[in-house]
Amino acid sequence: MTANNHQYLITGGEDPFRPKLINDINSAKRIDITVSFIRQSGLRLILDALIDALDRGVEMRILTGDYLNVTEPMALRHLLLLQESGADIRIFETRGKQSFHMKAYIFTFSGEHGEKSGHAYVGSSNISSSALNQGLEWNLKVELEENPARFAEICRKFEAIYFHENTQRLSNAWIAVYQKQFEHQPVLLFPELEPEEPLLPPEPNAIQRAALLALKQTRIEGYKRGLVVMATGLGKTWLAAFDSVQLASEKVLFVAHREEILTQAEYTFVRIRPEDKVARYSGLEHQLEADMLFASIQTLGKAHHLHKFAADHFDYIVVDEFHHAAAQTYRQLLNHFQPRFLLGLTATPERTDQADILALCDDNLVYRRDMFDGINSGLLSPFSYYGIADQEVDYQSIPWRNGKFDPEQLQNKLATTRRAKHALQRWEASKQTRTLAFCISKKHADYMADYFRDHGYKAVSVHSDSNIRRNDALSKLEQAEIDIIFSVDLFNEGVDLPAIDTVLMLRPTDSKIIFLQQLGRGLRTHSLKEKLVVLDFIGNHVSFFRKPEALFKIGVSKKERGEFIRQVQTGTLKLPQGCFVNYDLDAIDFLAKLIATNIDTQEQFYRSLKEAKERRPTLAEFYQADGDVQAIRQHHGQWLAFVDAEHDLSTEQRQCLQRFQAFFKELETTTLTKSYKIVLLEALIELDGFQQAVDITELAVTSFNVIQRRRALLSDLPDRFRGLNQLDDKHLKRWYRYWMDNPINAWTGGNIRNASRAFFKVENDRLIFQGNIPETEIDIFLEFVGELIDYRYMQYEARPEKKQPIQSEPKANVISIEKARKQRIPYFPDLKIACGHFKVSEHDEETVRKVSLPEQYGHLDANRHFIAHATGNSMDGGKNPIKDGDYLLLEVITPDNAGSISNQIVAIERQDVSGDDQYVLRYVRKRGSGQYELIANNPDYQTMPATEDLRTFARLKAVIDPDDLNDV
């Protein structure tokens, strides 16, 4: 072997194989690998590079085998995911007779002018951690240019073994058979094979454990859907995987709107559930058999795909970040499937973003933790934020269209010497060791990298056309071989970058979500850093409010923005522990001037909300953000007419509005004594009832199920139907009559003099919508109906008390009434309701005080309602924890008002052996005919059976905010 023919040995120790391997993976146009075994410890070292290669269209073939049962099933699951992304993975079956002990890595490259080159390594390295890193391995490198005959011979041998009769394409079915073989037969190690620690799944962190407990509790309470809000970096995808195990689910569906989210989720779920069959759904029949199916909403949301699955095919469904897509697309999916539980996930930063999402999850916000919670809990790194005045760019002069700057003109303004100099100076003053910078375009990233290199720094530009690959740049940054990466969009999410300690924001943000994702790249904790430094450039344009709106959760009104500026100026911003914020005076001046002349009308408020969301807000979002719906209605007649006046409806949407304007207005304003009218419409959507006649019995049952799902509506039910989880024959007949007499009667004209004006009619025991919806408009129609239903639910559930029929009134009027009216009830300071085991609680009538509460706690009666303290921790858990010392608003239960106590939290009394009264608080669940059990929210306390010596004496109405108590 000679040096001049470029054939040489690569050995382990100080000359490991891994760097050479990754370098060639990052440069190749074609990759062929055959090794006798693959272990997860080795695959994860090169996995990111392989994924990047597939993303840029590299042809990839990998062959491994079952020789001596060394290849690990989890590694095969990950290889299967590579196959889903375009690789061709094959298995050589030794069948107990044929040895399979080869190791070869072949890479083909293409030059700028199409010339071919190549490297082939033949030697001893399998894909394991020891073989690629520290192990003493010999691998002979053969280059195509120097020895084309030998290189061609290696390629021919690879082709022969790759298409050998013993090989077959990797599949879930093959892995399932091999899994049993791997587990039940002894593994015969190669003599040179060193034992390695298996790659175990991670344990849930503190926030995930709390969320898992809340999810468990919400299912105990009867919810079948729920929303979890968790900031980027807290592991919401891991949470979903953990919860799918907690529920013991057998069939999992994960839905998202972007491929990169699905890819990340696949690898996460495989780590937690390595024995389950996994597939990415593209419509092929074999994918229906997967235990874990990952699908884009754009594909699965279509009717012809949905109908391939039975309604109960999946017992656990995860919908991630669905606020990015049209609600109607998701409604079709949610209306079709009936899993044991559906989990909605989002990292959305503000309450108004949750309006529609929460409606799709039965208004059940199970758990929420934002970025500040993550920092306070130690799971995310604290930050020092610098808002830097972008003085070198006049953003007011750049054309602004559809909520975005003109990209070419923005790029030209940002890629200038003066601005690069300003950025470099501020970076030098505050930087730490490893910086990730976000740019507006490839040209901008290249320009900034060149400028920083010219000033002596090790800088690279990373994007889809750059010479350096993403995984290589990250590795060099972590090893401090480079100082800064300038990127466009490759690092927004899905990549772990814990070592980054400085983030440089060199661009306006098109999205608050993307801003938080970019910020989140540096918030991972790491032993190499104590904090994250954020250098954020703020310009003279209203779009720059998106950043504080995302980071500090401020609203879009002039008042809320003004209050934010005041807090910055006075140093009173609420920050997590260890965090620091400083805005340049000029940056604050930019923002202050932007709101100084802004007239905050409802129209302007709507436009600000639209810009903040990068789409037009729904009615529920506008209402939840404290928009004045009544003012809009007074000027425009109805919400959709206002949206049309704002030029936010397409031609097709406008036609649909004109055709069904009267129905949309009735839905928006109809009087609601109970929730039944909108429940019926939601059930109707689930049954395609606007497109076809619906059997009333089926409609009544579906409506009952909607109420069961939306637990906040259970109080609307008459006593005879409360506590029922489903309708038996006896109750179904009663419910049918009740449903006919109420919402069906109302919608068919029973409450108006001229029934011909009704929107529905009943014929042959079927409900029919009296409107002909063109096929081209049905999706638009259902989207509008869904939007209005969401608003009416939100408005209805926010009412202080359902004593009077309500229409859509200005929220400000309701709030002023709540603040004005007070009610007096008794407060027993020394009456303790035990949240633990039964406790004696003596109270003296002379200590009773009279207190008042706002109207928001409902209509209160001094003869029935009273306040006492909780003591202990047995109810401290779940969605609505009750803590030691909380003030409890309770309602005395009598035979006249008891109703059903199932699925409620009640106070229970008994006498101990000395005759003293004892009290305990528990959630009541019915077990069977006449049998009940008492459940604690805190799993540390055991469930108790309800026995004859227990007396239910009060039900919990609410936990009181102490600030609402006033002595009278």
TrEMBL record:
Coiled-coil regions listed in the entry: none
Domain Helicase ATP-binding: 217-367
SUPFAM superfamilies in alphabetical order: LexA/Signal peptidase, P-loop containing nucleoside triphosphate hydrolases, Phospholipase D/nuclease
Keywords: ATP-binding, Helicase, Hydrolase, Nucleotide-binding
Molecular function via GO: helicase activity
TM ranges: none
PANTHER family per record: ATP-DEPENDENT HELICASE LHR-RELATED-RELATED, HELICASE
Protein name as catalogued: DEAD/DEAH box helicase family protein
